[in-house]
């Protein structure tokens, strides 16, 4: 397992700000956990990258209207909240707090 | 499942001549020939009298004469001669199809003739554009047409099926893939950066070091796949949009269903370097042809299993994104065509 290097407050660097293009997803790892970073209207969101339905990577999906659509079976999730919006998935995505400092992107796992 | 209101490739234009050619397309038997002035004609390959394929007959001037009892049909599909009788029954006629010759292929409209607009023929100009060297060919495939579409939308298979020609392990393991979609279009873009070139690229491109390789797959319904593929020496800027010092090719595919279980597979390969070098065109063609025969073996074996186990469960993997998006478009278009047919029938 890759070590997760967190500062005392629990923040982990996962990407450079320059990696994140507006309207696009960026696949990152929090330790061994695949997460997806999204930059929408300048705001950065971090969510689990693995679809809760059948394990597809959502960062390879389609971003439309503030939601990401699973590339394989069409489940949709709200990028800001992780809420599942459309079947075949029914479980929401875990979200992560995001902080940007010195052009680096940090996330913090939920306690 | 077939889509009807589309232009399909029916044949290589060179294969249509004064000897009638019979070919089944979308389950419909069709005969092709040229009139004396060279105009291509397509009509139903079934005599209105006793159903013999008219392609077994012969041309008498511009009339196609049935091999069985000698009925003759003019280019509009109307019977104009019945040996031994003067009266021609009004039903003695066969259905005709709009056809257009373009890019060295003969195209046929399989839907409502009133909707046939040649402007909607998919662009394959690379096959007859002086700026490109190109050669095209045909494969008969004993498999459903959608298996071929799937194959071309997920090129990770090159690493396994085509490791002696156009594939290597870098394709599956070190690629970045992006799928974009529009209502009737899917584009799969794959970049393999700073990796060894596959055998075919070394042979025709002379690469000695690592390359930046691209595969940009453009799908349009029902079954047209135009691939922009190539490589340049790594670090020369291809991913940023500058292609220098490498090779660029188009792999062009037009699949026409014959039946639900068999397909006509028209394909060509075009290259934008040393375009008048016929030996090079041939060498590239042979490399791709070798690979395509490997694909046909895969399709045939898949179809064997689908015949034994119809509609089996299947697992989707990340590489299927383009495949799934294309199938979704095809399902939607099929639903729309069926709904329109039913609406017309209900009028």
Can you describe this structure?
The complex is a heterodimer of chains A (111) and B (347). Chain A contains no helices and 10 strands. In chain B, the strands form 4 sheets. In chain B, strands 12-18-17-16-15-14-13 form a 7-stranded antiparallel beta sheet. Chain B has a 4-stranded antiparallel beta sheet with strand order 2-3-4-9, with no helix packed on it. Chain B has 347 residues and is of the alpha+beta class. Chain B is built from 6 helices and 18 strands. Chains A and B meet through loops of A and strand 13 and helix 6 of B.
Please tally the helical runs of chain A, counting DSSP H or I stretches of 4 or more residues.
0
- H/E element string of chain B? EEEEEEEEEEEEHHHEEHEEEEHH
The averaged pLDDT of chain B comes out at 95
Low-confidence stretches of chain A: none
Tally the beta strands of chain A. 10
Major sheet attributes of chain B: 7 strands, antiparallel
CATH-assigned homologous superfamily of chain A: Rieske [2Fe-2S] iron-sulphur domain
The arrangement of helices and strands of chain A along the chain is: EEEEEEEEEE
Summarize the amount of helix of chain B as a percent range.
10-25%
Largest interface: A-B, 10 and 10 residues
- Name of the CATH first level of the largest domain in chain B: Alpha Beta
Assign the CATH class of chain A.
Mainly Beta
Estimate nothing, just give the exact number of structural domains of chain A: 1
Oligomer: heterodimer
**CATH architecture label name of the largest domain in chain B:** Alpha-Beta Complex
* Alpha carbon gap, first and last residue of chain B: 24 Å
Structural class of chain A: mainly beta
**CATH architecture designation of chain A:** 3-layer Sandwich
């Amino acid at each position: 397992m890759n070590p997760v290097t967190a500062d005392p407050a629990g923040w982990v660097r996962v990407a450079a700000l320059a990696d994140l293009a507006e309207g696009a997803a960026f696949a990152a790892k929090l330790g061994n956990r695949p997460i997806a970073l999204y930059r929408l209207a300048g705001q950065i969101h971090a969510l689990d990258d693995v679809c809760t339905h059948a394990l597809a990577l959502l960062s390879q999906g389609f971003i439309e209207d503030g939601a990401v659509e699973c590339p394989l079976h069409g489940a949709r999730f709200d990028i800001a909240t992780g809420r599942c919006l459309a079947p075949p998935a029914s479980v929401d995505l875990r979200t992560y707090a995001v902080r940007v400092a010195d052009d680096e992107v940090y996330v913090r796992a939920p306690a | 499942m077939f889509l009807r209101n589309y232009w399909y490739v029916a044949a290589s234009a060179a294969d249509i001549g004064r000897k009638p050619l019979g070919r089944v397309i979308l389950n419909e038997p069709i005969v092709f020939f040229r009139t004396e002035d060279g105009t291509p004609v397509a009509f139903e390959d079934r005599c209105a009298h006793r159903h013999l394929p008219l392609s077994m007959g012969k041309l008498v001037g511009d009339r196609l004469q049935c091999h069985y009892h000698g009925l003759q049909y003019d280019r509009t599909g109307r019977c104009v001669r019945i040996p031994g009788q003067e009266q021609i029954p009004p039903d003695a006629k066969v259905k005709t199809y709009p056809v257009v010759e373009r890019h060295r292929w003969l195209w046929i409209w399989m839907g409502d003739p009133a909707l046939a607009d040649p402007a909607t023929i998919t662009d394959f100009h690379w096959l007859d554009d002086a700026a490109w060297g190109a050669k095209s060919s045909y494969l008969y495939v004993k498999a459903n047409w959608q298996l071929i579409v799937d194959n071309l939308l997920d090129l990770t298979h090159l690493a396994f099926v085509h490791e002696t020609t156009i594939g290597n392990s870098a394709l599956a393991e070190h690629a970045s893939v992006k799928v974009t979609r529009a209502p009737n279009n899917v584009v799969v873009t794959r970049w393999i950066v700073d990796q060894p070139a596959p055998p075919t690229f070394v042979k025709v491109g002379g690469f000695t070091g690592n390359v930046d390789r691209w595969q940009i797959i453009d799908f349009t319904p029902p079954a047209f796949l135009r691939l922009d593929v190539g490589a340049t020496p790594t670090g020369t800027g291809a991913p940023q949009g500058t292609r220098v010092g490498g090779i660029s090719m188009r792999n062009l595919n037009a699949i026409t269903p014959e039946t639900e279980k068999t397909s006509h597979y028209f394909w060509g390969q075009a290259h934008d370097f040393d375009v008048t070098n016929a030996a090079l065109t041939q060498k590239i063609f042979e490399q791709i042809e070798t690979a395509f025969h490997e694909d046909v073996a895969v399709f045939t074996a898949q179809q064997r299993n689908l015949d034994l186990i119809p509609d089996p469960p299947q697992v989707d993997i990340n590489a299927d994104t383009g495949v799934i998006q294309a199938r979704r478009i095809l399902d939607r278009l099929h639903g729309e065509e069926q709904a329109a047919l039913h609406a017309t029938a209900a009028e």
